[in-house]
Amino acid sequence: MRLLRASVLTMLVSVLAPAQQASDQYTISPFWLGGAADPRVLEAVPGNRVFVGCGDGTIRILTDADNNGIAEAAALFVSSVWGPHGLAWKQNGPGYDLFVAHLTAPGGGTGQITLFTDLNGDDIFDVVTTMVMNLPLGAHQVNNIKLDPSQQWLYIAQGATSNSTAGGGACVAKIPVTAQNLVWGTPQIQIVATGLRNPWGIEFLPNGTLFATDNGRDDLGPSDPPDEFNHIVQGGDYGFPAVSGMPPAGNTTRAPIGLFESHSSACGFAIDKGNLLTGFVHQVFVAEWGNWNGLAPTPRGQKIVQGNLHQRSNGTWVLNSWDFLANCGHVLDVDVGPTGALFFSVQWGGPGWLEGVYHVVPTHGTALKMSGLPELGQTIQVSVHSPSRPGHLYKVAASMGTGPIPTALGNLGLTWDDIFVWSLSGNIYLNFAPTGILNAQGIGAGADSVLIPNLPVLSGFTLYLAAATFDPVTIALTSVTPTAHLLML
Fold first, then answer.
1. Three-state SS for 25?
2. Is 20 helix (H, G, I), strand (E, B) or coil?
3. Any idea what the Cα angle at residue 432 is, between residues 427 and 433, rounded to 5°?
4. pLDDT exceeding 90 applies to what percent of the chain?
5. Which residues of 56-71 are buried (b: 16+ CB within 10 A; e: fewer)?
6. Domains of the chain
């Protein structure tokens, strides 16, 4: 192990700024430009397929048979499920179950959760089961739904009926996957958490830890309150309508673990649980639909936010985030597919963006994965994933610099900062192994690490990491990873 030097950094390709990150380090494809259907909620499933719930009342199956980032087929699965904001997919023998949260009439009626069962995998549903009826509808509706890791419970994000009253909603609830013909409000529908004005996205970690986005009130002015990212616990009260954003001193409601800009409409989100995209385990991608009623003096949201989701050594969670893709229209939902591709839906387009579903992967197919606690005195493990380059050499580098320096493959964003070394004189900071070799699966696991010294003055800074791969014969540069952000807590 040795201290990394500046010469290594000139081999890495990065980007200029977060808003340009997707164009330089990621390849974005228009997966399906079905704007007339009003694409909304996404569920990526095995086989390069994505179910998309559309505002025209349809659920469609988008299939990318040749894995080129563009769907060749958009088959109709079901119609007359209006305003779908939640999809959950479950393998069921040779077929599958598709759970849908929707409205019973175009733009109205009540909320409902319906199960469509395909018994033989021919993409034609054979059984329809009404699971929950009469979910409240007003200012908001039933939103995302999600199966827990056991796949025995279906979790429901239900919005409040107004800005200032819950109206029977403003909660996260759960039902067994065998539920039938339940009426909202009956004891069989178990309330998990309350005080959430408009919880839109919900998602689990593999260990069962649950998180949710929440849209703040619209009646408190142009700058308040922020939208929230919450760790959802059984029996938790998250403050609505009395408390928005961070609770005041002495208040016992649960505080959000991350905040977004006010009126940005943080909606669907996805957690990359260690597949292809570059970042910390577990990294989060959040769709910010944007402000809708002119409350904010300037446009808000209309972007995808990326963040690192960390659990501190004391057990509490925190989300640190930054812009991943800005000015991309009113994006409503995101999902990470089984192979690591990111999908997002643009409901209303913006300059340069059409309504539809988009597909995002690292441009060079190489990713950097990190795990560990980003706290003082802790060690971060670093792993390179490049499935198409087994046996290639690789090197990891890090910096607090910003760049850029032009290279043959793009712009180098990891420039060396002499203050970085000087301020840490006498401390072993970056403990990177010499050049490694990717194994048969294209993975260099556990070969590199970052030791965070126990120096309080270092808290709160961001470390940027990237990696490059090289042909083992010619030592020619063959790929680079997108830059990963490591925020010190």
1. helix
2. helix
3. 130
4. 64
5. bbbbbbbbbeeeebeb
6. 6-10+366-487 (2.60.40), 19-362 (2.120.10.30)
